[in-house]
Amino acid sequence: MxxxxxxxxxxxRKELDLLKARVAGTSNPNEAKYEIAKxxxxxxxxxxxxxxxxxxxxxxxxxxxxxxxxxxxxxxKQQMQNKNQG
Length: 86
Description:
mainly alpha
């Protein structure tokens, strides 16, 4: 199955990957989902994981995506505060 998540600004891929790694507490964006899964007590294999429950997949993806959104909002607020002060 292909990845349906399209980045509206392809040039942002590198920064989004760095953000993903940061919110997951790892230095490698490719390890982010495994780190979140481990924190949730969900076993993920490297490669195919089509056998896990949809609920478990949602816990991993939802946690990772939700934390990324929270961090982006925090960054935007900080940027607006800095702009208003300067």
